[in-house]
Write a structure and sequence with these properties.
Number of strands: 6
Radius of gyration: 15 Å
CATH topology: Alpha-D-Glucose-1,6-Bisphosphate, Chain A, domain 4
Shape: globular
Oligomer: single chain
Length: 136
């Protein structure tokens, strides 16, 4: 499980946001699964443009990255996957992110629940991840 989520290229197969535009242009720098690896994309209106960089890996436990959005709006988010082995064939995975917005966009956070908007997509992505891994 950990070996799978540490590879950013694998998000092509479970991450709802990555899968939204299968025709987007992708480029890579570095070695996937190691800090400093960068996955860049440039796609349609839904996909936008940006890059994700692996920033830290704690073997068997945690994968951290930074996502830098260029369009449709600029921004930076920190993301992580935490894994915890529960049994030989069972692993708990937590996936989260944090971000901040500058004025005036931060006012919109008061008017909408970002967690509700993103939560459903995270749930779909995690269910797809689980399904993919159980098949292999």
């Amino acid at each position: 499980m950990f070996g799978y989520v540490r590879l950013l290229k694998n998000q092509d197969y479970f991450n709802k946001w990555v899968m939204v535009d299968p025709d987007k242009k992708k480029s890579y720098r570095g070695v996937d699964g190691t800090p400093g690896f960068v996955y860049a994309w440039n796609g349609n209106k839904q996909s936008g443009e940006g890059e994700q960089e692996l920033t830290n890996i704690i073997e068997g436990q945690k994968v951290e990255s930074e996502v830098r959005f260029i369009r449709p709006m600029t921004g930076v988010a920190k993301t992580f996957f935490n894994t915890e082995a529960l049994a030989p064939n069972q692993t708990r995975v937590n996936w989260g992110m944090s971000s901040s917005m500058k004025y005036p966009m931060n006012i919109m956070l008061v008017l909408m629940s970002l967690e509700k908007m993103l939560g459903k997509d995270l749930e779909i992505s995690m269910a797809t991840l689980k399904n993919n891994l159980e098949k292999s």
